[in-house]
Amino acid sequence: MFSRPTMQLSVRVCRAMPATTRTPSKSRLLSLSAARFAEIEKKRLSDEVPRAAPAPKNVANDKRSKVSERLQKRASKKAAMTLTPKAVEHIRALQHSASGPKLIRVGVRNKGCAGMSYHLEYIAPGQEGRFDERVQQDGVEVLIDSRALFSIIGSEMDWQEDKLSAKFVFNNPNVKDACGCGESFMT
Protein backbone atom coordinates (compact mmCIF):
# COMPACT_ATOMS: atom_id res chain seq x y z
CA MET A 1 0.00 0.00 0.00
CA PHE A 2 0.96 3.63 0.07
CA SER A 3 3.49 4.91 2.52
CA ARG A 4 3.16 8.16 4.36
CA PRO A 5 5.46 10.20 2.04
CA THR A 6 3.16 9.45 -0.90
CA MET A 7 0.20 10.72 1.08
CA GLN A 8 2.11 13.87 1.98
CA LEU A 9 2.99 14.42 -1.65
CA SER A 10 -0.66 14.31 -2.69
CA VAL A 11 -1.57 16.63 0.16
CA ARG A 12 1.07 19.11 -0.97
CA VAL A 13 -0.27 19.03 -4.53
CA CYS A 14 -3.80 19.67 -3.32
CA ARG A 15 -2.71 22.46 -0.98
CA ALA A 16 -0.81 24.12 -3.80
CA MET A 17 -4.06 24.50 -5.69
CA PRO A 18 -6.20 27.52 -4.80
CA ALA A 19 -9.21 26.75 -2.63
CA THR A 20 -11.57 27.80 -5.41
CA THR A 21 -10.32 25.03 -7.71
CA ARG A 22 -10.54 22.23 -5.17
CA THR A 23 -13.41 19.90 -5.70
CA PRO A 24 -15.25 18.41 -2.74
CA SER A 25 -14.02 14.95 -3.63
CA LYS A 26 -10.37 16.03 -3.32
CA SER A 27 -11.01 17.63 0.06
CA ARG A 28 -12.69 14.47 1.23
CA LEU A 29 -9.77 12.38 -0.01
CA LEU A 30 -7.39 14.38 2.15
CA SER A 31 -9.13 13.24 5.29
CA LEU A 32 -9.16 9.56 4.36
CA SER A 33 -6.59 7.10 5.50
CA ALA A 34 -3.84 6.06 3.14
CA ALA A 35 -5.36 2.59 2.69
CA ARG A 36 -8.77 3.96 1.79
CA PHE A 37 -7.18 6.47 -0.57
CA ALA A 38 -5.30 3.69 -2.39
CA GLU A 39 -8.49 1.63 -2.70
CA ILE A 40 -10.48 4.52 -4.18
CA GLU A 41 -7.66 5.43 -6.55
CA LYS A 42 -7.34 1.84 -7.77
CA LYS A 43 -11.08 1.68 -8.46
CA ARG A 44 -11.01 5.00 -10.29
CA LEU A 45 -8.18 3.86 -12.52
CA SER A 46 -9.88 0.54 -13.32
CA ASP A 47 -13.15 2.32 -14.20
CA GLU A 48 -11.48 4.52 -16.78
CA VAL A 49 -11.83 3.14 -20.25
CA PRO A 50 -8.66 3.48 -22.26
CA ARG A 51 -9.23 5.62 -25.29
CA ALA A 52 -8.19 4.36 -28.66
CA ALA A 53 -5.50 6.31 -30.45
CA PRO A 54 -6.85 8.47 -33.25
CA ALA A 55 -6.78 6.80 -36.62
CA PRO A 56 -3.78 7.89 -38.65
CA LYS A 57 -4.57 10.22 -41.49
CA ASN A 58 -4.35 8.67 -44.87
CA VAL A 59 -1.57 10.72 -46.40
CA ALA A 60 -2.49 9.77 -49.97
CA ASN A 61 -6.10 10.92 -49.55
CA ASP A 62 -4.92 14.11 -47.86
CA LYS A 63 -2.64 14.91 -50.81
CA ARG A 64 -5.39 14.11 -53.30
CA SER A 65 -7.79 16.45 -51.53
CA LYS A 66 -5.20 19.25 -51.56
CA VAL A 67 -4.56 18.69 -55.27
CA SER A 68 -8.28 18.68 -56.05
CA GLU A 69 -8.69 21.92 -54.06
CA ARG A 70 -5.92 23.53 -56.12
CA LEU A 71 -7.50 22.33 -59.35
CA GLN A 72 -10.89 23.72 -58.31
CA LYS A 73 -9.30 27.07 -57.50
CA ARG A 74 -7.49 27.03 -60.81
CA ALA A 75 -10.66 26.11 -62.72
CA SER A 76 -12.65 28.79 -60.94
CA LYS A 77 -10.15 31.57 -61.57
CA LYS A 78 -10.75 34.07 -64.32
CA ALA A 79 -9.29 33.12 -67.70
CA ALA A 80 -6.12 34.94 -68.75
CA MET A 81 -7.79 35.95 -72.01
CA THR A 82 -11.39 35.87 -73.24
CA LEU A 83 -12.57 35.07 -76.75
CA THR A 84 -15.53 36.69 -78.48
CA PRO A 85 -18.05 34.43 -80.28
CA LYS A 86 -16.66 35.55 -83.67
CA ALA A 87 -13.13 34.66 -82.57
CA VAL A 88 -14.31 31.25 -81.33
CA GLU A 89 -15.99 30.51 -84.68
CA HIS A 90 -12.93 31.55 -86.68
CA ILE A 91 -10.49 29.62 -84.46
CA ARG A 92 -12.68 26.53 -84.78
CA ALA A 93 -12.66 26.91 -88.59
CA LEU A 94 -8.87 27.37 -88.62
CA GLN A 95 -8.29 24.30 -86.46
CA HIS A 96 -10.51 22.12 -88.68
CA SER A 97 -8.99 23.39 -91.93
CA ALA A 98 -5.40 22.80 -90.81
CA SER A 99 -3.83 19.47 -91.71
CA GLY A 100 -4.06 17.43 -88.53
CA PRO A 101 -4.92 18.71 -85.07
CA LYS A 102 -3.31 22.05 -84.34
CA LEU A 103 -3.37 24.52 -81.49
CA ILE A 104 -2.98 28.27 -81.81
CA ARG A 105 -0.42 29.97 -79.58
CA VAL A 106 -0.66 33.70 -78.93
CA GLY A 107 2.59 35.44 -78.19
CA VAL A 108 4.26 38.83 -78.29
CA ARG A 109 7.31 39.78 -80.35
CA ASN A 110 9.55 42.83 -80.00
CA LYS A 111 8.82 44.75 -83.18
CA GLY A 112 6.85 47.68 -84.51
CA CYS A 113 6.74 51.38 -83.76
CA ALA A 114 5.56 51.08 -80.16
CA GLY A 115 7.73 48.12 -79.17
CA MET A 116 5.66 44.90 -79.20
CA SER A 117 3.22 43.21 -81.55
CA TYR A 118 1.02 40.15 -81.26
CA HIS A 119 2.21 36.93 -82.87
CA LEU A 120 0.01 33.91 -83.67
CA GLU A 121 1.35 30.50 -84.65
CA TYR A 122 0.16 26.94 -85.14
CA ILE A 123 1.70 24.29 -82.92
CA ALA A 124 1.12 20.57 -82.75
CA PRO A 125 -0.38 19.10 -79.57
CA GLY A 126 2.45 18.13 -77.25
CA GLN A 127 4.70 20.93 -78.52
CA GLU A 128 3.32 23.52 -76.11
CA GLY A 129 5.67 25.11 -73.62
CA ARG A 130 5.80 23.87 -70.06
CA PHE A 131 4.38 27.09 -68.62
CA ASP A 132 2.06 28.12 -71.45
CA GLU A 133 -1.38 29.17 -70.23
CA ARG A 134 -4.35 27.28 -71.68
CA VAL A 135 -7.52 29.21 -72.44
CA GLN A 136 -10.53 26.98 -73.10
CA GLN A 137 -13.78 28.57 -74.13
CA ASP A 138 -16.79 27.22 -76.03
CA GLY A 139 -14.95 24.10 -77.20
CA VAL A 140 -11.82 25.77 -78.56
CA GLU A 141 -8.43 25.96 -76.92
CA VAL A 142 -5.83 28.70 -77.33
CA LEU A 143 -2.41 28.80 -75.71
CA ILE A 144 -0.73 31.92 -74.40
CA ASP A 145 3.04 31.92 -74.52
CA SER A 146 4.37 32.10 -70.97
CA ARG A 147 6.75 34.95 -71.89
CA ALA A 148 3.82 37.03 -73.17
CA LEU A 149 1.39 36.28 -70.35
CA PHE A 150 1.96 39.52 -68.43
CA SER A 151 1.42 41.57 -71.60
CA ILE A 152 -1.74 39.71 -72.64
CA ILE A 153 -3.47 38.94 -69.34
CA GLY A 154 -7.01 40.33 -69.19
CA SER A 155 -7.23 40.82 -72.97
CA GLU A 156 -10.15 40.03 -75.23
CA MET A 157 -9.43 38.36 -78.57
CA ASP A 158 -11.86 39.28 -81.33
CA TRP A 159 -12.14 38.54 -85.07
CA GLN A 160 -12.92 41.53 -87.28
CA GLU A 161 -13.63 41.57 -90.99
CA ASP A 162 -14.12 44.61 -93.19
CA LYS A 163 -13.81 45.32 -96.92
CA LEU A 164 -10.03 45.63 -96.82
CA SER A 165 -8.90 43.21 -94.11
CA ALA A 166 -9.76 40.34 -91.84
CA LYS A 167 -7.74 39.90 -88.65
CA PHE A 168 -7.69 39.08 -84.98
CA VAL A 169 -7.92 42.17 -82.82
CA PHE A 170 -6.86 42.27 -79.17
CA ASN A 171 -8.62 44.60 -76.75
CA ASN A 172 -5.93 44.82 -74.09
CA PRO A 173 -6.46 46.83 -70.88
CA ASN A 174 -2.69 46.75 -70.20
CA VAL A 175 -1.76 48.84 -73.26
CA LYS A 176 -0.25 52.20 -72.32
CA ASP A 177 0.57 53.36 -75.84
CA ALA A 178 -0.04 52.09 -79.39
CA CYS A 179 1.26 53.08 -82.78
CA GLY A 180 -0.98 54.89 -85.27
CA CYS A 181 -1.75 51.81 -87.37
CA GLY A 182 -2.57 49.71 -84.30
CA GLU A 183 -0.12 46.92 -85.14
CA SER A 184 2.18 47.42 -82.17
CA PHE A 185 1.71 48.46 -78.57
CA MET A 186 3.53 49.18 -75.33
CA THR A 187 2.57 48.05 -71.82
UniProtKB/TrEMBL annotation:
GO terms for biological process: iron-sulfur cluster assembly. It comes from the Eukaryota. GO terms for molecular function: 2 iron, 2 sulfur cluster binding. One of its GO terms (cellular component) is mitochondrion. Pfam families: Fe-S_biosyn (PF01521). Belongs to the HesB/IscA family. This is Iron-sulfur assembly protein 1. The lineage of its organism: Eukaryota, Fungi, Dikarya, Basidiomycota, Ustilaginomycotina.
